[in-house]
Amino acid sequence: MRFFGFFLIITVFLLTLAPLAAQQGTDLPREFRSFSLGMSLDNLKENLINDPFFLFRGDRDVSFLPARDQSLVETTGSSFISRAFFQLRDGEVFIMSFTLNTTLIDHYSIFTQFINNYGQPVYLDPSISVWETETTRIAIERPLTVKYIDKTVFNDILDESGLIESNQVRQRQDFINEF
Q: Is-contact 71 88, C-beta < 8 A?
């Protein structure tokens, strides 16, 4: 119980520092190595082939999703990276997710590096740490996955799904009203 109280105090303290980090104007990176949010599918495939940390097999690692012009590139990694996922919309990357090899690298090292580079996270709990700006969100999830998200594209998708859902709700009610 003491540990929980101590953890809660530390969490509250860190969360109170988060607005200070955001006020410092710390820009978050939109890239990792040669990969960046907004890059094209062709550039992504070329960079995966040329990067020694990935074991990209070409087009068989690319899937097309049922949603509007979305695709997913999933590939295995070597050394520090176990797996990577790149989600694209309209031919451009809007989510990059890197699952790291926890036998070679630990959560604390990555978390500490992010704090040193970008300040305190804006959200912190035992399972996730989040840094964000108006356009970018970076999360470190346990056991050890680092995600880069283009918030503009992601929010557009959420807005569209809300419109689709509200239209479905209206259609459902119209159907029920016919009885």
A: yes
What letter represents residue 22's amino acid?
A: A
pTM confidence score: 0.74
| Neighbouring C-alpha atoms within 13 Å toward the C-beta of 112 | 5
Question: Could you tell me which residues come within 8 angstroms of residue 53 by beta carbon, excluding any fewer than 6 positions away?
Answer: 33, 77, 78, 79, 80, 81
Q: Determine the residue type at 152.
A: T
Q: Specify whether the CB–CB gap between 98 and 75 falls below 8 A.
A: no
Q: pLDDT tens for residues 4-49?
A: 333 333 433 444 444 444 434 468 999 999 999 999 999 999 999 9
Work out the angle at residue 26's Cα, subtended by the Cα atoms of residues 83 and 37, and round it to the nearest 5 degrees: 35
Please choose, from the candidates 98, 92, 88, the residue with its C-alpha nearest in 3D space to the C-alpha of residue 51: 98
pLDDT digits (tens, 9 = 90+) for 70-117: 888 999 998 999 999 999 999 999 999 999 999 999 999 999 999 999
Number of CB atoms found within 10 A of residue 44's CB? 24
